[in-house]
Design goal:
Blueprint (H helix, E strand, L loop, with lengths): L7 H10 L4 E5 L7 H11 L4 E5 L2
Length: 55
């Protein structure tokens, strides 16, 4: 599955709706930063792995 969210909140929604193995996300995003989004995604989907980037 592939998807794209414009911010951390949208990313959380996408992970909640699908079984996601890997998430690549920017640390600095509007609305909800990547670190906060990752923490929420881990609660929803504990097996998901994360690759965090900046820039």
């Amino acid at each position: 599955m592939g998807g794209e969210g414009e911010n951390g909140k949208k990313g959380v929604e996408l992970v909640g709706g699908e079984g996601v193995d890997v998430v690549v996300m920017d640390i600095e995003m509007g609305g909800m930063d990547g670190v906060r989004g990752m923490k929420q995604m881990k609660v929803i989907s504990g097996h998901t792995k994360f690759i965090m980037v900046r820039g």
